[in-house]
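debug: dumping io for the single-chain case to check the tokenizer round-trip. Nothing else runs in this session.
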Amino acid sequence: MIDQLINIVSYGCIVVGLVFWLWGTWPLVGPRSVLYKLHTLSVADTLGSVAIVVGLLLKIPSEWPLLIMALIALAIWNTILGYVLAYCSTEEPND
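debug: decoded output
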């Protein structure tokens, strides 16, 4: 019984992650600014990836060190990437 519940929650997390990926990709075709599009994509990609990794963690708990490392890497990489994109998008004054 508990194995079935873990499977349902695991697949639910993976499906939620895929929905976040699609939700973040859809605004790319809209008329908004590039920074809005990148922000939406970045946040949705991070949440989707974390949900998928949590689903995998429930599915294969024997691989927890690798999956926890993946969660930490996702959090650090996407945060740093957001700052780099924001810095690169600022205009430098002309001398």
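debug: round-trip ok. The first helix runs from residue 2 to 25.
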